[in-house]
Amino acid sequence: MAASLSVNLNAVAMLRNRRDLPWPSVVGLGRVALQSGAGGLTVHPRPDQRHIRFSDAPALRELIDGEFPGSEFNIEGYPSEDFLQLVESVRPDQVTLVPDDASQATSDHGWDLVANRALLAQVCERLRAGGMRPSLFVDGGIGEDLVGIAKQVGADRIELYTGPYGGCFDDPAAAAAWIEKLGVTADHARDLGLGINIGHDLTVENLPALMARIPYAAEASIGHALTADALLYGMPETVRRFRRALGQAI
User: Fold this and answer.
1) Beta strands in the chain (DSSP E)
2) Is 159 labeled as catalytic in the residue annotation?
3) Catalytic residue among 44, 159, 188, 219
4) pTM
């Protein structure tokens, strides 16, 4: 079964926030993405709310519950108390924990699972108690012992940080090496019973090769390239293009 496409709406929200106006509509474009076959929506609220605002999260939850009950809502973020209170009030289907510093422009590394083991165990237990699926953002290339920590702290899935692979768009040899690094880590996770998500700098062009190596991936969270392509092709056709790149039958 091909991976589900979760459309990350952060770039849409960033464009909206350039003006004190309600367009482009985050909820409206989320609706179009789901109508076009996306399996879910992703947002990554940050403390300064420079793109997705905390107030967007309940509106998107309402959209999914009211119009697309078979779809999933994924909220990403660093597990600060403010963030945890947000997800506990909105109850997304999945919470992807990332080790971002508040000043980071975007996610650029996975968790140090050894140093943060106690924190992640505590947070995963709290999320599971609230009926949410915990997923941990991890680097490709980590070994079975580190993937095992993700399992031990209570995560249900990992999300492989694919940024370095996306950065190899002009270097086929380096891209092939990163595909194998990501694939080996994914294999370890699968063997341990963890689900595998992928995300960061994924495009229509680089997805097929990665999916050929990790055909059992459950979800791909894609925002930047998808939003850029939507300016050229429109959101409905862009969603269809990414679904085809993931191996979905359209």
Assistant:
1) 4-8, 40-43, 72-77, 94-97, 133-139, 157-161, 195-199, 219-222
2) no
3) 44
4) 0.96
